[in-house]
Amino acid sequence: MITGLDMDRRNLLKWSAIVPLAAAAPYTALAAVPQGVDALVIDRRHWPAGTPTPLAGLAAPQLFTIDGDVTQLWYQTLDPIWRKPGFVLGGVTGSDALFVLEVLAGDRGRRVTQRRVLDPVVAGLQPVSWIIAPHHPSVKG
Amino acid sequence: MTTPKGISAQVFADGLAEMRSAVGADWVFTSQEDLHTYRDFYSVLWDEPDERVASAAVAPASVEEVQAVVRAANARGIPVYPISTGRNLGYGGAAPVYSGSVVIDLKRMNRIIDVDEGNASCLVEPGVSYFDMYRHLQETGSKLWLDVPDPGWGSMVGNALDSGGGYTAAPYRGHFEAQCGIEAVLGDGELFRTGMGALPGSETWQQYKMGIGPSLDGLFRQSSLGVVTKMGFWLFPQPEAYLSASIDLQRFEDVEPLVDLFNELEYGNIFNGMPSITSPVLTRGNPMMFQPVPEPEVMNRMVEETGLPAWRATAGFYGPEKVIRAQWEYMRDRFSAQFQNVTFKENQFVKLPLSAEDMQKVSKARFGVPSLEIFSVGSNGFGDFNPSDGHIWFSAIIPRTGKGLVEANRVMRRECARLGIPLFMFSPAVTCWTRSFVLFAAVPVYKDGRNKELRDNVQEIIRICAQHGWGEYRCPPAFQDAVMDSYSFNNNILRRVNERIKDALDPNGIISAGRYGVWPKHLRGGRG
Ligand SMILES: Cc1cc2nc3c(=O)[nH]c(=O)nc-3n(C[C@H](O)[C@H](O)[C@H](O)COP(=O)(O)OP(=O)(O)OC[C@H]3O[C@@H](n4cnc5c(N)ncnc54)[C@H](O)[C@@H]3O)c2cc1C
């Protein structure tokens, strides 16, 4: 299932803001934030209640947050983007949210090209760090 | 590359080559990685030798391409399995019923051919998802609603063909009931249309279902007779308002007259939203888990001790505010006249279209708004539900009476407990269809070898339900033979007639072999 992804073609610097953040994050998931992607999805459920969200510190042009449900993100943003060639998406989300995104991505010729299951499972939620990239010739950039 | 049983590698390669020349090489899939996406992620046979898997997949973009693919298969006896969006999770996913079939993936045929505002109808290709149609209606400023199932990523066509349902008003939420006109490619590649679609030049295909002679739409419901390439649907003219209201009753003995009166009011068009009957005292811990109905005196004592009602009937009303308020008032009068100790509650009233604020508060499917939030409900506390592990639905039609509801609850809960079937949702009295009750139970499936026992147990439940006269209306492929077997009147004449039709319309038996227990002649002996 897992195919290689040409990470070099992406501007890693774009995500350099994440690195200091990862050290400060209350949750180890942040340390596994994928790099070198066009946009990043963060699942807010992985922050313990009451912890100030560190995301405010991210000046990323394309940073998306969800609370488990991917509907709005996909419908408003990803679906139109995924209909066109290119676009590498990374994320740290619950496995439930990734399951839905992975199926939707498949519709548009995209695959999960990296998947890292993270610890710990909190309240039944399994965090996963992942990358979804174009796969079918019709969307390869 | 695996080949379908009985087809030589050479013949299969030939067939795929012909399909490639019809649809383009990029749209025929044979790699393991590609075929993985056509597995049923909720399969009760996951990773076992008998798991139903595709040998290849092909994605045509037009009716002509579908015809070419079917002809290529028919000439060689290659089994094919059409899907629309292939999201049939809980009932088989995107995988074929007969392992080794070539999946005909119709996602690329996603044109909304027509939305007729005046006739409140549409004509769509199979790849049109609920989200696609919703977007179209929003962008064109249409005043029409569609009716959606809980997950909005499926297709209007695929969902309706498997007899799916949604949550708005009665004529729309039974999706096959709301269809009006089907076009299908038959096993020999011929193009067929039902109803007024058979009359060249007719403008009434989406107005009058039946056309002339026997009504043939049903041939394509849960069937193995064609690849549906177009389907018409009636859409719901946006109502002015919605009201959800409930009626609480305090005694076990109220259930029978409650259901009778509820039925009379729904069938008399006093309310048109989805009916549901539950028991607050028996769903205390979890609204999704209806506990076993105890003996009358025990239940009445529980009611006294907890202060919770024995029964709650909830009705939805769609229409002009004045009208639906009058309907609700009439309903209250009727219940007050018949029951002592009845209480009423307005759960929700909203004017339509929904404001942005209301949109955040409502259950979207009741308003025809597609969503995927169901896949995150497990983590919101509605039962132990993880979408990546999966579940199957057990969906039996039970009598629409108080007695029937109680008996189905007791038998199912008792037998599931005896067999150790872990349920995470159990709701014995809802319906998407007119004049029926469905007992829905969600049963978790596993990826770690526990499925064999689960399968045996579900087969046993199918048998027990059949002994009581309750039959599933829809089920995953692993149980389709057993369920079809249970419809056994006159030595299974239902299946035998289906087989005769299958032999006549698809003599080479290439389309959707085994779907809902109907196998082509050459596979019938061993049932696939
Ligand atoms: C959490 C959850 C909640 C659910 N809630 C609901 C619900 O509220 N209501 C509901 O109805 N379902 C529900 N489902 C079941 C299922 O997900 C939906 O019914 C879904 O819409 C079906 O997938 P689809 O539309 O992609 O149909 P498909 O998978 O494309 O089609 C279903 C079957 O129909 C046949 N078929 C499809 N297209 C064609 C064609 N063009 N020609 C010939 N045969 C064809 C095939 O045999 C196919 O396997 C739920 C599932 C889950 C996991």
From TrEMBL, chain A:
Q: Which domain of life is it from?
A: Bacteria
Q: What InterPro entries does its record include?
A: TAT_signal (IPR006311)
The signal sequence is 1-31
Which keywords fit this entry according to its UniProt record? Answer: Signal
Report the protein name in the record: Uncharacterized protein
User: Which source organism?
Assistant: Croceibacterium xixiisoli
Q: According to the entry, what is the taxonomic lineage of the organism?
A: Bacteria, Pseudomonadati, Pseudomonadota, Alphaproteobacteria, Sphingomonadales
Automatic annotation (TrEMBL), chain B:
Q: Which Pfam families match?
A: FAD_binding_4
What Gene Ontology biological process does one annotation of this record name?
lactate catabolic process
Listed transmembrane segments: none
Domain of life according to the entry? Bacteria
Where do the FAD-binding PCMH-type domain residues begin and end? Answer: 50-238
Sorted UniProt keywords: FAD, Flavoprotein
**Can you name one GO molecular function term for this protein?**
D-lactate dehydrogenase (NAD+) activity
Q: Which PANTHER family match?
A: ARYL-ALCOHOL OXIDASE VANILLYL-ALCOHOL OXIDASE (AFU_ORTHOLOGUE AFUA_3G09500)-RELATED (PTHR11748:SF114), D-LACTATE DEHYDROGENASE (PTHR11748)
Recorded protein name is: FAD-binding protein
Q: Which organism is it from?
A: Croceibacterium xixiisoli
